[in-house]
Amino acid sequence: MNQYIPKGTAKVSARGLDVFYGDKQALHHIDLDIAAGEVTALIGPSGCGKSTFLRCINRMNDLVEGARVSGTLTLDGNDIHDRRLDVVQLRARVGMVFQKPNPFPKSIYENVAYGPRIHGLARDRAELDEIVMNSLEKAGLLAEVESRLSESGTSLSGGQQQRLCIARAIAVNPEVILMDEPCSALDPIATAKVEELIDELRDNYTIVIVTHSMQQAARVSQRTAFFHLGKLIEVGGTEEIFTNPCEPLTQGYITGRFG
Amino acid sequence: MPTILLTLVLLGLASAAYHLGRGKALSVSADGAPLHSLPRYHGYYVALWCGLPALALLVAWTVLEPQALRALMIAALPPELRGLSSQHLSLVVNEVRNVALHGAQPSSAAVAEAARHYTALSATGSWLLTALCAALAVAGLSWGRSRIHADARMRNAVERVVGVALVACSTVAILTTIGIVLSLIFESLLFFEHVPLHAFLFGTEWSPQMAIRADQVGSSGAFGAVPLFAGTLLISAIALAVAVPLGLLSAIYMSEYAQPRFRAVAKPLLEILAGIPTVVYGFFAVLTISPFLRAVGARLGLGIEAESALAAGLVMGIMIIPFVSSLSDDVINAVPQSLREGALGLGATRSETVIQVVIPAALPGIIGGVLLAASRAIGETMIVVMAAGMAANLTANPFAAVTTVTVQIVTLLVGDQEFDSPKTLAAFALGLVLFCVTLALNIVALHIVNKYREKYD
Lengths: 259, 457
Ligand SMILES: Nc1ncnc2c1ncn2[C@@H]1O[C@H](COP(=O)(O)OP(=O)(O)OP(=O)(O)O)[C@@H](O)[C@H]1O
Ligand SMILES: [Mg+2]
Known about the structure:
The complex is a heterodimer of chains A (about 260) and B (about 450).
Chain A: E1 10-21, E2 24-35, E3 39-43, H1 50-57, E4 67-75, E5 78-79, H2 87-93, E6 94-97, H3 108-119, H4 125-138, H5 142-145, H6 158-171, E7 176-180, H7 188-201, E8 206-210, H8 214-220, E9 223-228, E10 231-237, H9 238-243, H10 248-254
Parallel strand pairs in A: 3-8, 3-9, 6-7, 7-8
Antiparallel strand pairs in A: 1-2, 1-4, 4-5, 9-10
Helix pairs in contact in A: 3-4, 3-6, 4-6
Chain B: H1 3-30, H2 39-75, H3 79-82, H4 86-102, H5 109-146, H6 154-194, H7 197-202, E1 206-207, E2 222-223, H8 226-257, H9 260-275, H10 278-300, H11 309-334, H12 337-345, H13 350-379, H14 382-387, H15 405-414, H16 422-452
Antiparallel strand pairs in B: 1-2
């Protein structure tokens, strides 16, 4: 049973989305809406297609040899598989944070400045400085790195690196931020910081987060979608999904009976 | 017994020793005592005791036998032969050997007698060796076997032998290197007795021809190596100017843009370039590139000589493309996909990603590849001999004939002068310089790689 969001308020919406890797179908006919200004959590057992769905939204699957997509997926009502759509532009609007922190082997400053630079978001150095500082601030990292902006981004701890990657994504000023298990490589304290950050970012960005932690989904998200074997089983308010799921599969998964 | 046969017999004995040792260990454990080491380690232990000392003796004997035989044979020669100068003596020794080993016709009764003596000596020696080896092997076997008991730490003992064997192998490699360097240094020191160091390093005239006889007209030799260094630099620079852009760009294309199927074909094809014999490149330079350059030069009003640094450098550049491209391709592929996705996910285009993220991340490896290519270029000889000539001109003009360090080493050594003339010794001094430069290149490369290496896990 899927709850569609009233027309017009969905930021991203999938209708009949199928994804194939070669002959293997990874997603079956997904209908899913993602509301603006909310955190949507994607949960489900390993290999059920959560990352695949996430990577469709910024067309990262284009990079995968033999990946094919059919059905429609829209961002603000525009089909993102439209031939006329500029992928580079799309990815500037839809930022992504990966499972493993992947800072560039550049200085902390350059890591954050990279996006604004390639998109020409700053007219001069002062503006660029401002964007960088702002993004670091929003990512809750500024205090820790202010004095060492010229050090390599890879010299930070794992948790700091992940927040650096979030700052890097924010710096481009995207509308949607996709996060694929952003805390799976972090310890509980770093995880708590990132979760706090996600909560703050919710006001300005639409966030989709893949997570294996039920608690995390419950803590940070307003809506939760449950995937199983490439199918969307159920989507609804997080409260509801966790307290009163309609589908037995969902029930089984969140109570830890399988997955 | 011939050495090979003896070796095989020893190996056979060792494998028998293995089974004996293992069998004894098994019977010990069958008696109820828990073994410290697995039975097979007891087997290895006995086999090592059986085989190693005997094989070591065999090796030492094989190395030392010719010297010993020679000394014994000379001692038995009649006095008039023994008193000959060392050069003539070694002629006689050779003749005796030929008679004894290959049945050549002896030129005198004394030689025939010496040959008989030689044959007898080596037959005795052979028997002695066989007997000694057999004795050692059997002694080792029974000693090793006697050490077998339940608590014997055979596993650790075998481990130690493995460690020693590994150290021994690397020691051979290291000692060889040290030996080569030392011989370079000693011969160079001899050279610097004739020619002062500064005259060699900073002199600008190179004409190593020396008068062989006192009455001969000829220069007394000038050993200023600057023209050679300049020539080497010029040609290497041209080669790198060709190889670095072509190699790097093709590596980028193959690793980032090409279809996997294309890459599977193209990469080995490109690597074939490194496998073509350099003589063939030499032909190519002389027969194709040089005339072409000359024709183009004539059109443009440039005087390009038949032998030119440009022709040699261009062809050498093509030769070293694989060094740059193959290594760069490997390091570019080793850049984690997550970095690419990070950049692409921010909305970077493919080329932005490659230039700003992938290449910087791969840079240490790329520089390593370039330096490797550079040392290959500096050491290359054949192409330069054929395409750039031997004239030691001090010039930065790529259209003129130049010569390089390696080419001169060859010309110095193929002459018919004595081995202690400055002309010949100069080759060692040049070799030493070449060695130092290459070493410096490698050290710099390592330093760069270590300094800028990013750790990906
Ligand atoms: N590049 C690929 N090539 C082929 N098959 C793939 C590829 N990526 C994913 N798949 C397949 O698609 C299915 C969904 O994979 P996906 O990565 O989306 O799962 P997931 O839900 O993110 O799992 P996890 O929780 O383990 O990250 C899996 O069966 C997987 O084997
Ligand atoms: Mg995943």
